[in-house]
DNA sequence: CGTGTTTTTGCGTTTTGTTGCAATAAAATA
DNA sequence: TATTTTATTGCAACAAAACGCAAAAACACG
């Protein structure tokens, strides 16, 4: 088995299970511990995973809930500022949930007149602080993990909406694999959101670039804007610049 | 289980419940007390929580005092405790919004298995902290004043629900005039909520007793329970005791 | 084809990290 | 104060990682 194959195998395990044990890999791949450790180190150097004592963890699996201190808050504010530029008076906007979106909402101009649909209660509460924004919260089953509504009812309601712009956070984006996710229901949800907006902007901190997870949401071509905290010319974005995609 | 995963688990517990007991963690994670204590110490070193005798506390719990700014919080907690007694495993409950309801939700027992419908995003977020409660957020226009969803869509959806119990806060209750309100839309909403529940409990701090506002929601007979912070025998409640109404 | 170079891999050793135990100290509780 | 519960500390056993080294494989090039 070639080294590259081993690396791919490891990454597949990581994306599948969010974690992997060194000892498991030794068994599965039938090589020495040292080799696995070296492999993991190389993948760390490529910025593809986190190494911990005993194994490795997925980058996308970021210690799920830390509401006191928003992870990478500065980056998210930078993204929020860029996203605000897309919003014009009179627009109908659909948003997902997540801390990045929340930071974006806090940065909207006070006088903005617009209609916002959202599946996130927290986003709704934040949007309600703007006098001229009409807020419609899409109801349904409430997800304990993602803190958004999901399920059949949400998707049915989304089908009735025609939005000018959809803003969504993401757990992973990859130049070839497009938008991917780990959970089936969230995957379905994102597809429905994409379907009801003319354009979609993906808000994404740079460390979620170049990651592909189990379930495909859409190809990269279905996205109109990619917003990261990086400068336009940044090297990490070159593979995305080749696609038909506005980068902010 | 990797150490990092344990740390994440602990942080999730902390952020969910604002506190955690060492002994609980020992059981849940199946490791020795020493390990848990060391984990907690490491998280303290990372400035992620406070350690106290017997367990640990969330940092945000101490720093953010927005709880204490709730008006008449003690009364609302007293009401919440009484309201919890009405909730049994397996029930389908519908709740409104408001700080009284929110305090009630925080007092629910951890293991409770139930289904909650709610029109309040904040209540939904709070309910989501209970593993065995299914939370359905009813969507629609979002009211900037009351922080609940309202309007035609909400009423349509309410019509499809059959709840065992409805819990609502109120701005006014009067022995002769019944439940009253100031805003047309909220009035409609409350009527719809009443209609879809077998029984309705009104949570109401004593200073809202004996007040009648412009719009009638329902006569006092339509309410099955009145819950205030007062003792059962309190004089202010005498006029209500004469009605067919359980007083808690 | 042969020879020197680089890459890859596994082995032994040392170092570091992790965990549970026991003895003792401190804090909470009655 | 007496008793129980929880913390702290040092220690030993074990697991995993790092490091240097050498064998083997793959590669480059005359």
Describe the model.
- 2 copies of one chain form a homodimer.
- The first copy, chain A, is of the alpha/beta class.
- Chain A has helices at residues 3-17, 22-29, 33-45, 73-84, 99-106, 121-127, 152-159, 184-195, 238-241, and strands at residues 19-21, 49-52, 55-58, 92-95, 114-118, 133-137, 140-142, 149-150, 163-169, 173-174, 178-181, 197-203, 215-218, 225-227, 246-247.
- The first copy, chain A, folds into 2 domains: 3-58, Orthogonal Bundle (Arc Repressor Mutant, subunit A), CATH 1.10.10; 73-247, Rossmann fold.
- In chain A, strands 6-5-4-9-12-14-15 form a 7-stranded parallel sheet, with helices on both faces. A 3-stranded antiparallel sheet of chain A has the order 1-3-2.
- Chain A binds a DNA duplex (30 and 30 nucleotides) through residues 3, 22-23, 31-35, 37-38, 53-54.
């Amino acid at each position: 088995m070639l080294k590259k194959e081993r690396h791919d195998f490891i990454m597949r395990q990581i994306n599948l299970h969010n974690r992997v044990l060194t000892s498991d890999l030794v068994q599965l791949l039938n090589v020495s511990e040292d080799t696995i450790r070296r492999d993991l180190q190389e993948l760390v150097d490529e910025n593809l995973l986190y190494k911990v004592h005993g194994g490795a963890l997925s980058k996308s699996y970021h210690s799920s809930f830390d509401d006191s201190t928003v992870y990478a808050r500065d980056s998210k504010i930078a993204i929020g500022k860029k996203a605000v530029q897309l919003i014009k008076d009179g627009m109908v906007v659909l948003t997902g949930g997540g801390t990045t979106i929340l930071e974006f909402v806090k940065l909207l101009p006070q006088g903005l007149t617009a209609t916002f649909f959202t599946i996130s209660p927290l986003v709704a509460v934040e949007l309600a602080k703007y006098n001229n924004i009409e807020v419609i919260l899409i109801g349904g089953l409430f997800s304990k993990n993602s803190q958004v509504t999901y399920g059949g009812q949400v998707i049915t309601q989304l089908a009735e909406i025609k939005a000018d712009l959809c803003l969504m956070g993401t757990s992973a984006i990859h130049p070839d694999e497009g938008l991917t996710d780990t959970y089936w229901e969230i995957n379905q949800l994102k597809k429905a959101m994409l379907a009801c907006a003319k354009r979609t902007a993906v808000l994404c901190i740079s460390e979620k670039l170049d990651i592909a997870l189990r379930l495909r949401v859409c190809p990269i071509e279905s996205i109109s804007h990619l917003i990261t905290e990086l400068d336009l010319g940044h090297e990490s974005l070159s593979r995305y610049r080749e696609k038909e995609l506005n980068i902010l």
